[in-house]
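Q: My collaborator sent me two sequences in one message, no labels, and asked for predicted structures for both. Can we handle them in order? The first one she listed is below.
A: Yes, handling them in the order given. First sequence, followed by its structure tokens:
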Amino acid sequence: MKNYIKPFVIIFTLFLSITACDTDDDLVFTAAPQGEFAFTNTFLSEYVLPAETSTNNNIGVVFSFNDADFGVQTNVSYELQSSILGDFTDATTVSTLSNANNQIEVSIGTLKTLAEEYGIVAPNSGVLNFRVRAFPGDTSSTTEMFTETQQITVTLLEASTGSGSGIEISSWGVVGSGYNNWGAFADAPFYTTDVADVYVAYVSLVDGEIKFRENNEWTNDYGDDGADGTLDAGGSNITVTEGDYKITLDIANGTYTMEEFSWGVVGSGYNDWGTTPDAKFTYDYVTNTFKVGVKLTDGEIKFRKNNDWGEDFGDTGVDGTLDDGGDNITVTAGYYAITLDFENGTYTMEETDIWGIVGSGYNDWGATPDFSLTPLSNDIWVAEIVPIVDGEIKFRVNEDWGTDYGDTGVDGTLDGGGDNIAVTAGNYRIMLDLANLTYELNQVN
């Protein structure tokens, strides 16, 4: 009996081994979608696309997303898709600037091409539909995951033919240590008025001196020898003190005037009725209005001149009309673009995305509120006299890191999620051109 059992055990063991080997060879590891696959960045409320072609290769929009999980270890590829119908039965793969590290960048030129395919024509706006497809293996794979559809609004600009208000930038400007360190960057422009040879400029000055010159050069300039308001060709520098001014240049009569001039937002909804400076409006010559980008809290606001109650506007009828000394305007917390139209006696308040300045060079990376920039026409954003310290800065939307710009190449180009921008201490005039994805940091002093 003993001799029979031993061979049987050996044969049975061999059978199990062979069966196990066959079973291993037959195992198939099937990839299957697991968990959520979604976008991780936030998107702007509007993407403005310029008519000019010089910026076609700049980044227009960025799509960031988490890793797609197929339940097994496998290489996963990603592609961006577009759908005119919106249900992706007509899905097409979008050409991209880059596709790496869970981030896809699409150029301005590609967005313009897609907009045309969607039937959007300048100067109109429309919605483009996108999603990201994830798949193991090659593009023919039938195992795949998709993000939810992301719609973005694009606006196609027409080629610039001047301002809609009829007001134009003149050839005259303000230069000096009180504005641009004697020409370290462009002079502050004077604008045309309805009177020939009379021009007006709205400027924020620092302590120093200024003159008025033509075409950003010294061939033709005016100073004031007697400090009497008379324009003297090649005359003495004009001493100025820090503040906001309206300067009127009357070439025909050889005179000029300078008056303290600013409009701001004041109230419990912004600065506790003046415990800190009012949020200052900036002149937009394209629309002949004054604009400001501002973060408000629940409360009330009014608009007043020169941080003083000598002249102020409210809205007694809650009808968008500027009423002299009128009722306080109730506001809720959020980010707003506010426009004052003195020509028509109206104002508008639009809750929208507001770009701000953040960094060790300004607010210790968000320890205090970001410095809000003001949106002007043609997707230009400006900030006047920003106090910067040695460090680094970036630009972000609504004090949040969902959307931000840096400068990876230190070339003045805005790069989505790009490198921090090194800055040195001083007061700066800062401009973002979101249509062309460029920026300027102009140190005043």
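Q: And the one she listed second?
A: Here it is, processed independently of the first:
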Amino acid sequence: MAGQVVSIDDLVLPDKAKKFFIEQWGITKLHPPQSQSMEAVFSNRSALIAIPTASGKSLIAYIAILRKLLLEDIGSKAIYIVPLKALASEKFEDFKALGKALNLTIGLGIGDSSSEAKRIDECDILVCTSEKLDSIIRNRAQSMSNVSIIVSDEFHLLNDASRGPTLEINLTKLRYLRPNAQIIALSATVGNCEQLSNWLDAELIISNWRPVALEYSTFHDLHLEPRMVQSANLSANADLLNPPRDLEGPKSQPTWVVLNDTIDASGQLLIFVGTRKSAESEAVKLAKRVSKKLSTEDVDRIAKLNDVASSIEGGRQSAMGEKLVQCIRGGTAFHHAGLTHNQRKVVENAFKEGILTCLSATPTLAAGVNLPARRVLVRDIKRWDDGMSRPLPVMEVRQMLGRAGRPKYDDFGEAWVLCKGTDGWEVADMVSEKYFFGDVEPINSKLAGEPALRTHILSIISTGGIQHRGEIGDFFAATFLGFSTPKHILIMEALGADLPNFCHLPLLFGPDGKKLSKRHGDTSVKAFRDKGILNDAMFNYLCLLGWSPGDDVELFDREFAISKFDFNKVLPNSAIFDEKKLLWLNGQYIRSTAYDNFLKDALIKVEENLNRALFPEENERLNKILPSVQERVETMNDLQAQVLFLLDEPFLINQEEWDTVNSEEAQKYLNNIRKKFIDLEDFNLENIELLMRTALEELEIKTKVGFQSTRVAITGTKISPPLFESIFALGKETCIARLTESIEKLTN
């Protein structure tokens, strides 16, 4: 079946199953990656299927289950594992339709009803969450005795710190209990596919094909820049991209601008935000604008929206429920884990039917719930995680972007990322490089975390029939954790050493979103020391890469870090080595240094750069200016540029900067203050500032013109310590001499 498109009629399935797919679901042919998977499915081989969102992974699993239960192992059971209750409910509805047509009983295990137990034991197909499956295996292992096929949907969530360990243990237990069972693992985003398929002893099916072409774009300052197209022919050819364009609207309201453009194009918008609160506030904000637009452009839709809102209105409504009703009447809605089952279904159906214009959602919606839209906007690409704002993993953003494009409805989907910040183009380029063209992070076992490991060890001892330490070792050697660390263990055993406690730490990425390496520049501690980074600042920053002490604490010493460090607070996501953040942190350390100590270090640093001792007059000048400099520099290497104008070295003026301040007004101002300085008897800070501001008023010259020209004339550059402090530190005589010299240059 490999290399060809397979029709439903060609499949070795009961006729009633093929009839159901064709007549009920309208499926006559399989997509290329589905066809590619059939050989493994019908050969009873396990398979890891890594293909894009909307390319039909679920159908592969359905076909595999029906083949097992109806043809090969009649009377056996199938387990379908999902990460979320909402996704379990969605798959349950699919299987109910299949079960009714094919005389199969379906069970749902999500922990919401005491009546689940009977259905779990007696059903042919069990749809359940990992947490519920864990409970079933521990308490009713006999119900797994006839399992012939196991499907793990959204398999990449093995990488999730909270859900991953339970899923890993469940798959390990099932492989132990039912070694001949077929395993089908489904995911759209897996970085280390080969390693995972080897662990499962599964065939790897990997493809970038998707039924709806998907255009990835960055959006900043109302400018849309298409970057890449992923299409059915796997092309990323720039010729397929739409031309860049600028959207119209207020720059302060980018999400409304995107939504307004989407409505005008007769589409729907999915907005992904970071938190439940953000999802709600975004929907409320947009509803006010959408309501006004619909009242003049689409009155019929308003009536439909009121009907939807009325279906969940009334009774003892929570504040959140009232907010949801308000949003729906305005044409929008929010979606997150805090919604009730009924609220969630109403929102999802209204969106699927095209009644709602927009849905703001947390990333949980991207974890498998089938709710695509023509256009997706990822608003937030950072998340507050254990005291720090951290970039989202590529894996997670790709999941969200993959919701763009509705199969059977659209031939083109639009996946946009909102790029925030003053340097829009730079941010947009980094976003594109990382999230569109960058590699997906590898999946790492999260079982090594002490709480998860302790819980599952105790569980298998108490309920898993484990009798001695050797069996515990054998069991955990079969986990992905054990599979991915055997080389380390063999080396330690060969050396006759005691085995250490293994843990998995997050990878370090560069600002471009790729693994930190020599191409990113400096790689040694000495190199950073030479750059002026303080030892304590470097230690502090390295601690924050993948760990946080909590309580929003960012500045701390070694003793504090040692006392607070806990492996349980090591974060699962990759950390970004951001030199800008390191420089900021180093600046904080410099400013927190006692001034006497800073003065001592600063004078030593200046002498090192000069390769000579300072003169008494230079020391005097530096003492006047260094308190201001301490508040400005980020490294000790920045000192020289800040104080060079105070030293008895050849005085040079930056000609390019000088040309930008040269004007008749500048000449007039410099001549004026030079004369006033000559007559000024008490040359102190207060008098200097008063004199210079009075001159501006008398001459009717703008502050920028007067002060910038003075700064360049006196210090040689536009960048220096505060102007008045610089003049005071330089001294009256030197200041007048430099003004005289500069005026001559201005007039020549």
